[in-house]
Every structure is written in C-alpha cells, then in structure tokens.
C-alpha cells in the first residue's frame, strides 16, 4: 500500500520539496488510483505512522476535516484504520472490528496530517508515583478550591450539604512529566484561551494534561478519576539545559530536557478513594496527554500502572510495582 499527502489548497511547491501537510491518500494499485481515509478515531497515533512512512518525522496535527478536500471529491479508499503509533507503515495498523458508523454519506471529512521534523516527547516519571504515594484523610473544609475544580467524587458534593466537615480519603502522589524529545512542549491552545484559576491565582494552559484512575482487576473503574489541568512550566532541567517557561500568563511549556513536577502536596494531585471498598487490591493508572492533543515522538512512555493495596487506613495502604504503560488505544 502506497501513501502520500495531497491538498486542494496548498501552494505549488518545488518538485524536491515534499508536502508536509495535507489529506492522507492511499493506493493499492501502485499509484494508478488513490483514495482517502475515514476512521472513528484519527489521532496523532495514526499521524505519526503516516509521517514515519513518508520519512517526514512526526505528526503535529492529525484530524478529520475538509481543509484539504472532502470525501465527495476525494472518495474514501480505506475505512476504520486504528494504529498504536509504533508501526512503520500504515499497512501494519489494525482495523476497527465493524464498519465505522461515522463513515456515512453525510460525512465529508477525510483524514489529514501535518508532519514536522522535530517533536516533543512526554515521559511519565514512574518511580515518582510509587515513592510519593500515600493515603490522606482530609476534611472537606480544606478542599474548597479542589471541589471548585471537580477533583473529588460526586458524592462529596451531596454530603457537603449536611456535613461540610466530612472526611475524604485521598490517594495522593506526585506526577513528573519530562520532555525527552527534541522540541519544546507547547500548550495546544492560544494563551488568550487559557483558563484562569482564581483559587490558585494562575492560568492553566492545558485543561486535560493528565488523568488519574483506579480500576479493579477486571479493569472496571472503581474510583471516579478526574482530568487534571496543568500550568505547564520548567520545574527542573538536565545539566546544561536552561529553563525557559514559568507558570505565567503567556510563557507556559516544557523545554526539551526539562520536567514539570506536580508535587503530591498540591491540590488535585490525588484520586478520591473514599467510596472504594477496602481490603482489596486495585490498579492505579496515570496518563499524560491522554487525549492526544499534543504531538509527540511516541505515546509509549505516557502512562503507568501501579498495584494499589487499599485498606482504607493511612499506615497500611500501599502503592507498589509501578510499571510504564502506553496510552490506551
């Protein structure tokens, strides 16, 4: 299967200059005919595979749109592509088990990609989670800001009406996000769209930078995890790398070779496990960039899973055996 990028809007380029953004087209007959792609999930995972196959580096954008032509003038030739992101070629990717419902006559979108030669690459600090994790018992009177940001389970808001000092059991831990790529991590949203957090008196440039969840051994979610927004900054850097980003209103990001560390003492660095059944073993899962809004070299180092021995008691609740995991497909 051959792959190329094409566009109905791109300016004319030198013959030796490859097109780095456009609709993705595939051919099964050595270039005699070409078709576009429709998928339920067309993400930066699939984009990375396309850019890799074309020798164009990494995907900075991968969306379904009509920016570079529509399915009416550029019919689909492939539907249901699903990649892990590590494949060398699009042909090695899997397919959705059933025909994608989104690929109907009303859908004019085609899969598009933009490729860049350099990219950031977030790596989750696995050992940081295990070393820092502990159970804390905190009265809701100390969780005012956290409750404004929906960092506790839904039942807490009901309980607060009659018992505002009720105790919440919070599994707290630190999260270290290191940029091991060769380009800086930059917030996907324009700084004018960043969200001001009055309680913390700073802007959050990423609404969903990380997710924290607890599952049972059958992978059923048992604790209502939350999507953590972050103020991105250079907390610590490798030797010889100068920090560039602060938690400012226009200067957020993570420099290549630096890390953003969110300590366990900060608001919302937890999972609310108050209603989780005690004396059982669970899985704590942490993910960075879970919605693929940031382009990365790889998504294999964005997650971690740990064993959680939850007793409901501070002294005996343990988080152990944390292992690196890719983002869930």
UniProtKB/TrEMBL annotation:
Cystine pairings recorded for this chain: 83-93
Keywords, alphabetical: Disulfide bond
Residues annotated as domain SRCR: 3-116
Keyword Disulfide bond: yes
Coiled coil: none
UniProt cross-references to InterPro entries, sorted A to Z: LOX-like_protein (IPR050912), Lysyl_oxidase (IPR001695), SRCR (IPR001190), SRCR-like_dom_sf (IPR036772)
Protein name (Swiss-Prot/TrEMBL): Lysyl oxidase homolog 2A isoform X2
């Amino acid at each position: 299967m051959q792959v190329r990028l094409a566009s109905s809007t791109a300016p004319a380029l030198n013959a030796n200059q490859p097109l780095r953004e456009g609709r993705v087209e595939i051919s099964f007959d050595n270039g005699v005919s070409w078709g576009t792609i429709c998928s339920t999930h067309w993400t930066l995972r699939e984009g990375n595979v396309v850019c890799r196959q074309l020798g164009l580096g990494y995907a900075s954008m991968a969306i379904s749109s009509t920016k570079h032509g529509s399915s009416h003038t550029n019919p689909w030739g492939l539907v249901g592509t699903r990649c892990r992101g590590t494949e060398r070629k699009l042909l090695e990717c899997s397919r959705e088990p059933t025909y994608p419902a989104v690929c109907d006559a009303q859908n004019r979108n085609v899969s598009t990609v933009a490729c860049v030669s350099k990219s950031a690459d977030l790596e989750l600090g696995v050992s940081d989670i295990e070393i820092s994790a502990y159970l804390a018992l905190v009265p809701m009177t100390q969780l005012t800001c956290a409750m404004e940001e929906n960092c506790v389970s839904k039942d807490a808001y009901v309980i607060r009406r009659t018992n505002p000092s009720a105790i919440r059991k919070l599994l707290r831990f630190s999260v270290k996000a290191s940029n091991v790529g060769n380009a800086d991590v930059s917030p996907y949203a324009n700084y004018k769209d960043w969200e001001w957090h009055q309680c913390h008196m700073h802007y959050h440039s990423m609404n969903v930078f990380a997710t924290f969840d607890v599952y049972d051994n059958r992978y059923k979610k048992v604790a209502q995890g939350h999507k953590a927004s972050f103020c991105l900054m250079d907390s610590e850097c490798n030797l010889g790398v100068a920090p560039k980003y602060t938690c400012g209103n226009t200067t957020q990001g993570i420099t290549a070779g630096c890390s953003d560390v969110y300590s366990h003492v900060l608001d919302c660095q937890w999972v609310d496990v108050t209603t989780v059944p005690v004396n059982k073993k669970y899985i704590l899962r942490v993910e960075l960039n879970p919605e693929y809004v940031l382009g990365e070299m790889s998504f294999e180092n964005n997650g971690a899973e740990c064993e959680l021995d939850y007793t409901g008691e501070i002294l005996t609740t343990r988080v152990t055996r944390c292992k690196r995991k890719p983002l869930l497909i």
